[in-house]
Amino acid sequence: MEIKDYLRILRKRGWIIIVVALLAAAAAFAISQVQTPIYKAKATVSVVPARPDLGLGMTAKDLLRNFAINIKTHKTARQVIDHAQLDLSSYDLLSKVEVNPVGDSFLIEISAEDQEPDVARTIALAFASEFVDERNAYYAQQDKGDRIEVKLVDDNIDAPLFKPKPLLNAIAGFVLGALFGLIIVFALEWLEADILRTPAAVERSLSVSVLGTIPADVTQQARGNRRGQPTAVNPATTVQS
How many domains does the chain have? Predict the structure, then answer.
């Protein structure tokens, strides 16, 4: 197909793409409005060597992943539940928590999600505090030069809305709807691909020259005759006897 053929298709059926895209955007926005809001808080723990030593720094980096695994355990979750007085099981609590080590910055990010922003903040800070207290108690028994300092970066954290995001969902719905509408348009064109609409299309398909065409009004008149409809007579061509 040539570019002009695509432009013809868009001129003819472009409204389908727009309608489907708008319907998808409206549906995504409406669904977002009825979803339960979830808030996400993130506490950051700093894990740095006590002295600027390359070997100790590499050790601290390597330990970050192990620390992250040990933070998200049922043992830590039960301690958080007891200290924060949460009415949750350890399984439910761990499903709300995500722990990510950031090796280049010597940080561990502890994120918590909940329907209440205050609860999300409490969970994230409680996990961070449990880890900091446990590590500091351990390193207090080590030589000062071999310690790794573990501390909470900030105890005042926000819990912004994490999901749903109606505007973003509406934009995504519009894009997906437009793609789906485009598929519908080309599917319709594919179903009509065997119809030759122009003399040029006939010549390309049959490799023959078109010598003449039948006007549209003649074909409409012939269809009327097949349906039993009366045919209008042109007075200028009526022969009087």
Answer: 3
Whether the pLDDT of residue 169 is over 70: the answer is: yes
Which is higher by pLDDT, 7 or 83?
Answer: 83
What is the span of the domain harbouring residue 85? Answer: 38-160
Q: What is the mean pLDDT of residues 110-133?
A: 93
Q: What is the CA radius of gyration of the chain?
A: 35
Same domain, 50 and 111: yes
What distance in Å separates the CA atoms of residue 13 and residue 224, rounded to the nearest whole number? Answer: 28
Q: What per-residue confidence (pLDDT) applies to 218?
A: 53
Q: Would you say 36 and 115 are in contact if contact means Cβ atoms under 8 Å apart? A: yes
Short-list 123, 128, 137, CA closest to 90: 123
Measured in whole angstroms, the distance separating CA 155 from the mean position of its chain's CA atoms is: 31
DSSP tally for the chain: helices H, then strands E: 8, 5
